[in-house]
Amino acid sequence: MPPLSIAATIPDEPLLYESLKSMLSVRELHFERHYMPVFAPLSFSLAAGELLLVTGANGAGKTTLLRLLSGALEPTGGQITRPPLPVVFIGHSLGLKQALTVTENLQFMQGFCAAHTRTADSLLHQLGLEAVADQAVSTLSAGQRKRCALARLLLQPNALWLLDEPYANLDRAGVELVNRILESHQRRQGIAVVASHGQLLPENLHYRELEVTPGAIDD
User: What is the pTM assigned to this prediction?
Assistant: First the structure.
């Protein structure tokens, strides 16, 4: 499959943060399980158009950090200030309906994104899933399921993106797809936090790196 020109297929929209002063800010954030710290206290801030790459060994707490940023977990201490925007979290559990087809999953996602402007057909094309549109998600490869989950990003560009291992299970074309989607988000002044511990890292993108130091327990 040839690389997809995602940047060219995503229409220009108003900049997300041009009137906002409050961005994503984290101060002395820490989290404990069974009275043991998962990672050392973290502090950072992200302005409009910034991408943060979170790295660290398995069990360092990368996924826990993303869950804290999303609001799914409450921190033990410290402060998180989020921009006044929806949050899109794509983790290891992709949140797809296994018995539904790819098209039906996309339509299901559209029901939660009232402001979206894309049809299911356009999403299938942008994600390279036209050939499997009528297949149940349970029959797809891991990479195809990941592509399907990425539709949430295209449906909610006006959001804080939290992505846990977005390159996992993707072929080269899929990796380029993720990079083009991220590039478009940056161009529109969006904020994204991406966790990765593998060799695949964002390409041709400006990003800052935060290495998470593991605590005393596995994540």
Answer: 0.85
Please report, for residues 37, 38, 76, 107, the alpha-carbon distance to residue 34 in angstroms, rounded to integers and kept in the order given.
Answer: 8, 10, 11, 41
Which pair of structure tokens corresponds to residue 15? 């900049």
> CA-to-CA distance for 197 and 101, rounded, in angstroms?
31
* 141-194 confidence digits (pLDDT tens): 999 999 999 999 999 887 899 999 999 999 999 999 999 999 999 998 899 999
Summarised one tens digit per residue, pLDDT across range 87-105 is 999 998 898 999 999 999 9
Tokens representing residue 163 in the block: 């992505």
What 8-state DSSP symbol labels residue 190?
A: -
Homologous superfamily in CATH for domain 22-211: P-loop containing nucleotide triphosphate hydrolases (3.40.50.300)
Residue 38 · residue 219 · CB < 8 Å: yes
Burial 171-197 (b: 16+ CB within 10 A, else e): eeebbbbbbbbbbbbbebbbbbbbbbb
Q: What's the mean pLDDT in 101-122?
A: 85
Q: In the numeric block, which tokens belong to residue 140?
A: 């797809």
CB 69 within 8 A of CB 24: yes
Kind and range of the H or E element at 106? Answer: helix 102-110
Per-residue confidence at 132, pLDDT binned at 50, 70, 90?
Answer: very high
Where do the structural domains in the chain lie, given as residue ranges?
22-211
Q: What gap in Å lies between CA 148 and CA 101, rounded to an integer?
A: 10
pLDDT for res 12:
43
- The one-character DSSP state at 27 is E
